[in-house]
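Notes on consecutive records. When two proteins share a document, each keeps its own sequence and its own token line. Never mix them. Below: protein one.
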Amino acid sequence: MGRHTRKKKRVKIHWGRMLLSCLVLFAVIFAGILFWPLPAKAEPEIFDEDPIAEEPAPEPVHLSIRAVGDVMCHPAQYQSAYNASTGVYDFSGNYTYIKKYIQDADLALCNVETTFKGDGNYVGYPIFNSPDTLATAIRDAGFDVAWFANNHMIDTGKTGVMRTVELMRGLGMTVAGARLTTDEPRSPIVEVNGVKIGIVAYTYETTTTGRRLINGNPIWEGGTDFINSFRCESGLAYAVEADRAAIAAEIKGCRDRGADLVIAYFHWGNEYQREFNAGEHNMAQFAADAGADMIFASHPHLLQGVECFEYQVDYPVPEPEPEPEPVEEEEENEPWIIRVRKHFGLIKEEEPEPEPEPEPEEPKPTFWTKKVPVFYSMGNLISNQRVETMSDYIPAKARFTEQGMIAWVDFDYDPETKEISNLQMQCLPTWVEKYKKNGHVEYYIIPLDKDLASNPELANSGHLSRAQQALEDVKALIDPAICTVINGY
């Protein structure tokens, strides 16, 4: 068998064709780069809420503050309240017709001008000691705060002061003007609708020289650490410099402890005067200068006028906004394929539209006007002072002792800027009714409101004309440019 040799087949590479194929492939790829449709831009994600937006600024809080003057308890009053069949003193009926106004307030305050020593020895002027059920009736009427800084606060000594504070606190009321220990602040802070309100309350002293006195009664040793009182520079209203400094420190101290607002109460002035004096005005101006936001007062047992101080308060300076992070030039973020097409003129550079000229912003106010209401005397809310008992003592003014008011201040408070806006000063006049009903003497505080003519007690007593005269007296006294005398809802 012969040997066969297999020859290898030589493959001829056509370099020209290969080069042509490469050129065609390159042309196809390049054409794709230049002309292949670009993918649609992704739509931006839409959120119902901006995930990085700042929380909206808090809305202003509306507050309605209502205050009344002297709650007194003369012997005729607690004798009227006594029920012989039950052995209980019941004062609740006194507040029947004003309760709706008091309970409707966000914060209601009253001057409790008696003590609750708790020994059963009930007495009236000149030393006041009343049944505990009077405190219960005050609470049930809707009052939140008892001002217990007045010229009768130490009538029953240290024991009476301490027990009065304990009793009213135990009923759920805040007491301002006295404290149980020196470890607690002199001035309480209450929270209303999320707003913290400091309550600063002081009474005048009758000190001339030597030992300090209130209503002629010596303050017990160390007592000034527990009660809020001030010595007078002139009259019975303007405090001596050292005590003014202490009151200013209390107002500031409330702020330092977190109070957003401060209410000041003063027991001051000359009894049975319908016009406030220079001492009261100076003391009110001082308290407002020190930072009080509203001022209520009593003691004269008659209504006095109102005033309103104004201050310019700067808005807080806003925190500077952080510098924005540098943004890369748009071209650096473009895909390379876009840049190639732009290079070959397939995508024309769009001329940016000129940004519209921003409209000039109106300059924002840098301050707001703070109004500080002053009610110089809110009169008697209830007492046995009236025409029948006072005519021999103050014949020309006896009827005014029957008159009082529910003073209130409505406003909006901005927690962020601390601004008080939309402030309204109003008062609803009141009149004390006393007459014999079913063989028993009754007392009622009558609001001189739209229901005055139909009030059943006035219809029974025949005293409608006296109540109407009281309304006219109040309208003549209160300056309508400052405070609105209202007739209820």
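Protein two starts on the next line and is unrelated to protein one.
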Amino acid sequence: MLDRTAQLDLGIWGAGITGLTLGLLQARSGRKVAVIDPILPLGQQEGLPAGVLTMNQELQYHHITRWRSAAAAATYAEQNRRGIEFVLGEVAQAGVAIERMPMATYTADGHEAFWLRYEARAMRACGLEPEFDDTPVLKYDIRPELVLDDQAVIDLVAYRDHLAQSFTDAGGILETKPVPARTLVSTTAYPPAQDRLGLRHRIDPATWNWLRVEVEELPDRMRFDLDDSGRLLVPWQGKLLVGSRRDSGVEWVASHFPGSKIVGHWQAKAAASLEALPLVGVNGTPDLLAATGFDVWELSAGTAGALQLHDHLTGTGVGHLPWSPIRFPRASAVFRAVWGRTRYQLDLNRITPFPKRG
């Protein structure tokens, strides 16, 4: 058993998917590591999103391409594939429940539908093969949705608890209070007080409100609704899970699924990077690291971030962190965003000047 009074190699703030994945990888490599979380709600849905494992993520590839570059978007896709492969391996090993199904992004707003074409183009440049589907399958009207086949939903509570158990089996420590460590990593939506790069000013924190709903007819795929600041619809184990980024979702469910019944609810904190890419890497000094900005896509992107930090800490990476916090957006992207917003406010062009994101 590890001496809990001795200085550890690594202390990780946050027992979410990212923190536990990094802790597990580090413990398996023989390092003395603790994951610190004041709550540690193992066995509970509270604090977790739905277990969506998908490469189709809202308008993420267009955001990254516009703010960064096509190469940055391709790297994001490559790292997400890596994260998904890791999750699928652990899911198979642990016997965690999983269902395969398509993932779609849609909108009912013609102005927002304009951006789906750009997202499709950005995704295809990353080697993905999304298709547009205009088959009317929902009981309310939407524009043609952008669909990526063969994505997955997993039992996220069981998976998180598997990571925690595997972590402690490998010699890791779960703590509710800080412990002395040579290197600290924050994987929470709010970077620690030692935030040296001002990450807290570069992320958009949000509370996702989740509902478990009984509906007359269960949808055949996962869907992200771009309207009303964003909603995620996930059919899972005979119920529809509805996540809303900015409101409770109760009124939306009542109007879009009349006759449905809400049978459960919970909340989960998340944070999106205002600079498109997640913020993963050294936060000012080598002994302070961060992994944040994954929004609701933590299962794939957060796992990818943990894999990148593990490579960095063990020296097995390629010498750089592709999502490093030390970076600046392209000046041309900033100019287009400012000019587009000005043009929109002056009513010179009613096309949304930049894709909505929360």
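For the record: The domain at 8-335 is CATH 3.50.50.60 (FAD/NAD(P)-binding domain).
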